[in-house]
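Input C-alpha cells:
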C-alpha cells in the first residue's frame, strides 16, 4: 500500500508541460518559435544577401542539380530564419494577418528536417524558397536590410577571393 501511495505522490495528476501549453497565446508561440530558430540555426548575412538569387535558382525554369539541393536549402533556411527575425522586429513582435501567416509558414518550413537528396530534397528546397518569397512579398522587411546584407556578402566574397 505504501508503494502505491508513493507512486501517486510522484505521478502528477496533470503534466506541467501540458498546462503551460494550454496557457500559451499566439504571440508567445511566435516568440518561442523565433527564439528556437535563432538557437538552432547559424544566422548568416551572406545567405540573406543571396536570398533572391537562391529563390530564382530553386524556383526557376532550370531545376537545380541534385548535388545543389542541400547547400541551396541550407542557405535558404538561414535566410528564412533571418527574414522571420526581421519581420518580427519590424512589426514589434506583433505580426498579424498575412504577415503572421508568412512568419508561421517560415518557422514551419525551417523546423522541417532536411531530407536526403532526390524528390524529397527538391520538394523541401522549393517549400523553403516559397516561404522566403512569401516573407519578402509581405513588404515588412526593409529594403535597406537586404541592401546592407548584399554589400556585406560582396565584401565577404572579395575577402575570400583575395585570400
Amino acid at each position: 500500500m505504501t508503494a502505491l501511495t508513493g507512486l501517486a505522490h510522484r505521478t502528477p495528476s496533470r503534466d506541467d508541460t501540458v498546462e503551460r501549453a494550454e496557457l500559451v497565446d499566439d504571440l508567445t508561440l511566435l516568440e518561442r518559435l523565433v527564439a528556437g530558430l535563432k538557437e538552432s540555426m547559424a544566422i548568416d548575412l551572406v545567405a540573406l544577401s543571396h536570398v533572391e538569387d537562391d529563390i530564382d535558382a530553386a524556383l526557376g525554369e532550370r531545376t537545380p542539380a541534385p548535388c545543389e539541393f542541400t547547400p541551396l536549402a541550407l542557405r535558404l533556411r538561414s535566410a528564412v530564419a533571418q527574414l522571420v527575425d526581421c519581420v518580427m522586429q519590424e512589426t514589434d513582435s506583433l505580426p498579424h494577418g498575412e504577415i503572421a501567416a508568412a512568419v508561421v509558414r517560415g518557422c514551419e518550413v525551417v523546423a522541417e528536417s532536411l531530407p536526403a537528396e532526390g524528390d524529397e530534397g527538391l520538394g523541401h528546397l522549393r517549400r523553403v524558397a516559397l516561404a522566403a518569397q512569401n516573407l519578402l512579398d509581405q513588404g515588412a522587411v526593409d529594403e535597406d536590410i537586404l541592401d546592407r546584407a548584399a554589400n556585406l556578402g560582396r565584401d565577404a566574397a572579395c575577402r575570400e577571393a583575395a585570400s
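The chain is about 75% helix and 0% strand. The CA atoms of residues 54 and 85 lie 19 Å apart.
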